[in-house]
Write a structure and sequence with these properties.
Helix content is 59%, strand content 16%. It is α+β, with helices and mostly antiparallel strands. It folds into two domains: 2-103, Orthogonal Bundle (Arc Repressor Mutant, subunit A), CATH 1.10.10; 112-253, 2-Layer Sandwich (Muramoyl-pentapeptide Carboxypeptidase, domain 2). The strands form two sheets. A four-stranded antiparallel beta sheet has the order 4-5-7-6. α6 (127-149) packs parallel to α10 (216-228). The longest helix has 47 residues, at 2-48. The N and C termini lie far apart (97 Å).
Length: 256
């Protein structure tokens, strides 16, 4: 009889442990899922600038009710903010965007040490020395990029360049410029040439604080791309420092 009671007690204890473990795993899975959804929403807003709850829900393939719960939590955490937009008759829409704190959720800056160092140089040696220092740094980086890109076809070099930028903390992507596609599609002989123009888009800035304090760095960055791609012209199309939600560059192969 005692053995039977002991066996039943052991079985009940094992069941409680299994139930507790399962509950812990379920809670862990729920937390992981919630974190994953939070990151997905933040990335969507980083890439698109602004969006309604409905647009976010459609993109992530979840219900509007579910997405609003996540948006409420993100807003409570001060990672996003909203503005009210009235379009026609009916309830106004909330249009969401990343807050400054939300942008800082992504890799968007070097250590404070870098900015502090530049401030020290400016204070002790003068602003002109900061400009020279930054120019030399970007020239060195441009040469390093050029060595890594080599003489591959432009499409391959563009992809390699984006991967280099991503490794440095930029949320970057690259695609053929629309005019390049139109030209290729319009070839009379039906053969499509490789695109001769590309767009680089970067949705965050890995040197955001430096760029805010020393906007000249953005000009050096533009020159860096031109040095890294000597057979191309490079022009800026969008600029985070101007309040836009991305930096953009149009890269065109020079006519030989």
């Amino acid at each position: 009889m005692r053995q039977k009671e002991t066996s039943q007690s052991t079985t009940a204890s094992a069941a409680r442990k299994a139930s507790g473990k399962a509950g812990s795993q379920a809670a862990s899975g729920s937390t992981s899922s919630s974190t994953s959804m939070k990151d997905a929403i933040l990335r969507f807003l980083l890439k698109h600038g602004t969006a309604t709850a409905g647009a976010i829900a459609d993109h992530l393939e979840v219900t509007p009710q579910g997405i609003r719960r996540h948006l409420k939590n993100l807003e409570s955490s001060e990672l996003i903010e909203h503005q009210t937009s009235q379009e026609g008759i009916g309830r106004p829409n909330h249009v969401y965007k990343l807050s400054r704190k939300g942008r800082e959720h992504f890799p968007d800056q070097y250590d404070q040490f870098a900015l502090s160092l530049l401030n020290t140089v400016a204070d002790t040696m003068g602003p002109e020395h900061v400009s020279k220092l930054l120019k030399q740094q970007w020239q060195n980086k441009a040469k390093a990029y050029r060595d890594k890109l080599g003489d591959a076809p432009l499409a391959d070099r563009m992809q390699a360049l984006v991967e280099l930028r991503q490794a440095e903390g930029y949320m970057a992507e690259c695609y053929p410029a629309p005019e390049a596609n139109e030209k290729a599609d319009g070839e009379a002989n039906g053969a499509k040439d490789a695109p001769a123009a590309f767009v680089i888009t970067e949705y965050n800035c890995a040197i955001a604080q430096i760029a805010e304090s020393y906007p000249m760095v953005c000009g050096h960055e533009l020159a860096m791309f031109a040095i890294a791609l000597p057979d191309c012209s490079v022009e800026r199309t969008h600029w985070l420092v101007n309040g836009e939600h991305q930096c953009g560059y149009l890269v065109k192969a020079k006519e030989s």
